[in-house]
Amino acid sequence: xxxxxxxxxxxxxxxxxxxxxxxxxxxxxxxxxxxxxxxxxxxxxxxxxxxxxxxxxxxxxxxxxxxxxxxxxxxxxxxxxxxxxxxxxxxxxxxxxxxxxxxxxxxxxxxxxxxxxxxxxxxxxxxxxxxxxxxxxxxxxxxxxxxxxxxxxxxxxxxxxxxxxxxxxxxxxxxxxxxxxxxxxxxxxxxxxxxxxxxxxxxxxxxxxxxxxxxxxxxxxxxxxxxxx
Length: 229
Prior knowledge:
Elements lengths: L5 E3 L4 H8 L6 E2 L14 H17 L6 E11 L2 E3 L5 H11 L3 E12 L4 E13 L4 H9 L20 E5 L2 H5 L3 H10 L8 H9 L5 H5 L10 E3 L2
Parallel strand pairs: 1-2, 1-3
Antiparallel strand pairs: 3-4, 3-5, 5-6, 6-7, 7-8
Helix pairs in contact: 3-4
């Protein structure tokens, strides 16, 4: 299946960087799908639908390729926070998230158009933000970094470092849950040439308790609560 080629349905530098850890050649293409929430649609339904829509949009022009697509959203008080429209909205989002918990949902789809196979995964992560100051928010927003990110933050941003703890998948909060992606590709018959949990944890620098469940790794059950530093 690798000889057919892989397409990542995203122009996101973060998703491209994470996908490159899988050790397989791929092409990155934007899917051009509107990321809107449907009437009465639950956040978890939204991300799965959008990941499928992105994969199917590229499948029409690339039916011979294996396609991977993902969508990630931030949810607080039942409200979906997308990418901020500008600096003022970014500030408002970061103030709303400050010092409290919220949810991050990622939906991802692996699609084999020629074989009619599709695997979709849903990942939920709980994130606790630290009590950063208004001055820190101003500096971070002035950097421009939050303007292309759901919820107006990047968990991996070392200078701002907005997250205190997470329970779930660190890579999912970045935009691409690699262990779940590896499982989805496996359901389509694609074996990856790397140890996915290991390369992900080496890259992020954080031990991932989700990997122990996703790939049935050895280890005792635990709360999955991980401090982010």
